[in-house]
Input
Amino acid sequence: MSNNWLKALSVFALLSLGACGGGGSLGNSGNSSAGGSAGSGSSAGGSSGNSSGGSSAGIFGGGQAAEEAGIEAMTAEEIFLSAERELADGDEEEAARLFGEVERLYPFSDFARRALLMSAFANQLDGNYEASRSDAGRFLDLYPADQDADYAQYIIALSYYDQIDESSRDSQLILNALQELRVVVERYPGSEYETSALLKFDLAIDQLAGKEMEVGRYYLRRGHFGAAINRFRVVVEDFETTTHTPEALYRLVEAYLSLGLEADAQTAGAILGHNFQATDWFNDAHVLLTGRGLTTEEADPRANRWLRRIWRDGLGLGR
Output
């Protein structure tokens, strides 16, 4: 775990973005985790099932003023349960609004505390990530020692993480997600959200490495071999435990051979073979190198220092 945190911090420095404060296939798993917690965290799932009536919006006819007057006549518990019914019916936006009404009308009640967190959850499900993050942040400001503080922090992390997708070019989202996931684990050790946060942290690191690969391939296709090498080197040195490392080593072989740097190409191929010999990337690199009369068995002592260091130190790539 500590190694991953250090890797993330090195990336922040590398991209000159610094530590940040506190969607796609990735997002689906996050929302499902959040859903399980919210049901137990509110402790209102069972009581909601016993309540009668439809949505609160349908109870009071006659426009917004009449509806507001009707809501103000309800108790905190009644509004809270109405919000839960809206949430169960799939209207997350209306649920978030009603949870907000609990806090507005009964700010000092225990329902206000619970409603604030549920509002964050409902907004998260609705894709209103900024509002979700705001609600969860206020919850932590008001109730920093609450038993659900870890969940509020987890929602903040999800508000960034669930926006990450394969096509996004915004690395800042990934960096923000990494920073907030890190807070979950370090501030709330042993939390029920720790395992999920660690998994998402590793996936986000993999996503960040993928961004480096995308840029590196772009440079490689256009013959900017030095710029491409710099990107692939970042993946090999800073993201060596990700799924992108074998390809990064192969692309280094390609780039170095294109520049005529055979010692560097051979050493990158040797690292690839030593750690990922069963991959297609190694097979392709082996063909390239042996076609030039080079080997994948040993590093070349004339290679660049950073490559020789990785070969010598044996960083455990792919193990």
About this structure: Residues 61 and 118 are 26 Å apart (CA to CA). The first helix runs from residue 2 to 14. The chain has 17 helices and no strands.
